[in-house]
Specification:
By secondary structure, the chain is an alpha/beta fold. The protein has two domains: about 240 residues, Aspartate Aminotransferase, domain 1, CATH 3.90.1150; about 240 residues, Aspartate Aminotransferase, domain 2, CATH 3.40.640.10. Helices cover about 45% and strands about 10% of the residues. The chain contains 16 helices and 13 strands. The strands form three sheets. A seven-stranded mixed sheet has the order 2-8-7-6-5-3-4, with helices on both faces. Strands 9-10-13-12 form a four-stranded antiparallel sheet, with helices on one face. A hairpin with a 6-residue loop joins strand 9 and strand 10. The radius of gyration is 25 Å and the shape is globular. It binds pyridoxal-5'-phosphate (PLP). The site of pyridoxal-5'-phosphate has 13 residues, from helix 6. It comes from Penicillium malachiteum. This is Aminotransferase class I/classII large domain-containing protein. Keywords: Pyridoxal phosphate.
Amino acid sequence: MANHSFPSSRRGNANLSRGRLIDMKKELQGKTYYDPVTNPSGLIDISGASNEGMRDFLEEFCKNKKQTPSIAEFLEYGGVTGPPELQKAVSDLINDWFHPSVPIEPENILPTNGVSSLLDMVAFNIADANEGVLVPTPMYSMFEQDLCSRAQLNIIPVTMSRPLDQFDASHKKSFIEVFERSLKSAQRSGIRVKAVLICNPCNPVGRFYSRDTLMVIASFCGKHGLHLVADEIYALSGFESPDGFDNFTSVLSLQNDPKQGILIQNIHSFYGASKDWSMGGLRLGFLITRNAELWNTCRRLALFTWVTPFSTSFFTDFITDKENTKKYIALNQTRLREKYLLTTAAMREQKVPFHPANGGLFIWVDLSRWLGYFPGNDNITNPGESRETQLCRFLVERGVYMRMGELSLSSVPGHFRFVYTSPGDEGHIAVRRIRKACIDLESQNSMEKYSFDSETATQSSLQEEGYESRGKETGMKALKIARQAKAHWRRFLCM
Ligand SMILES: Cc1ncc(COP(=O)(O)O)c(C=O)c1O
C-alpha cells in the first residue's frame, strides 16, 4: 500500500533526534523485570528517580483521611491553577522549610501539572527560540527535552575541569570563571544567553551547592542580566553527610543585594510533589517567583498545565497538617540516609567505584575503568555507538539498567546514575550484578586475547599465559572457549 502519511512539522521532526532516553527504554521492550519471588533473574531497572520508601506512611495517611471530596468535585474541571488554598499551603511550606529571605506569598506561587511542564513553560517565557541557557554539568538528563523540544533553546554546558568540584565553596572562584568562559564562547557563536539553570541538589550526582556558591552564581547572573532558575524538586530529600558535604540552601533564601548583583526578582525556584513527597502520579509542580511579569506570562500558558481537583485537594490536605509534614520529612530523610549507607557499604565491599552524595535519590557510579573493554570512542555526538552506551547494554544483559552519564552531558565517560531507593534488596542485588558484569568483562577480555593470538598463531603468548606447561591440547581448548566467548560478546554489542 502506498504511504499516504503526511509529514510532521520540521520542529516536530527535529525532536526525533533528541530524547535518547526514550530510545534506550524502547530497547528494553521485551525484557522481564525483577521480582524477588516470581522473577528473581529479571532486569533491575534503577534508572527512574522514584522513592517508594514512604509508601507505608502515605497509605496510613490515606486510611486516616477524614474528608473525601465528592465524586462531583473530583470530576469538575476546577481552577486552572487549583484552588487558592493550594497556593497558601505551598507558600506556608516554602516559608517553613526553604527559609526565604522575604516571606513567600501565595501570589508568588503558580501551580502546574509537574515540574517538567513548568520547565517547558518557563523556558518559553524567559528566552526566545535559539537563545541560550547556561547549565552546569552533569545536568538532569531531561533538561534537554524540557528546554529544547518546544521552546527551542540552546543548552550551553558549564563544565568544570574536575567535575563535582562545583559544589564546594572552595571552588566557587574557578566555577564562576568557567561560567564566564562558557558565556563568552556562546556569545562568540552568536547565541544570546538569557538564564542560568541549576538543579539543587544536583540530579544525577546527589550533591547540594554551598550557600557561597549560590551567591556567586546569583552575582554572575545579576552582572550579565540573566535569570537564575533553580530546580529544587529534591530540596528536602537530603541528609547529614558522612563526608561533610553541604546541605540544602534554597536560592530563595539569598538576600537582595543589588550592589553584589543579587536581584531576587530574577531568582526563581521550581518545586513539586513528585520527589520529596513521592507523589509523581499527582502531577504537581510549582513556580515560586517574585517576578510578577514572569508569573503573568506563565499564567497565560497555564491552560496547558491545568491541575486536577483530585491532586490539588490531596496535596493541600497533606501539607496543611504541619505536624504530619514534619514527621514525614524527618522519617523520609532518616530512611534515605539508612538506604544510602547500606548501598554505599555494598558498593565498597563489591569494589564498585562511586562518588559520595547526600541529596536526592542517586549515587554517581564511576565505571570508567571498564570502558576499555569496548571498541569505539566516547564521541557523544554519535552517542548510539559510544563505549558508554555499549557498557550500558552490557549491564542490561547482566540484569541492571542505570541511566548513562552521557545523557547528562557528563564530561567523564563511564558514569551512571544509580537510584538507590528501590524497594527491598534490589539495590544490593544490583550492586552485586554490576560487580559480576565487571568481572565478566575482565575475564572475557583475557579470553579475547587468546583468540587474537590464535590468528597470529604465536605459541609464545600461550607460554606467557602459562598454557605451555599444560600442553598443546589444553591450549587449544582455551582458544576454543575464547572464540565462543568472543562470539557471545559480539552478540551483546550488536543488540
Ligand atoms: C531534577 C528534576 N526536575 C524535574 C523532574 C520532573 O518532575 P515532575 O514529575 O514534577 O514533572 C524530575 C524528575 O525526575 C527531576 O529529577
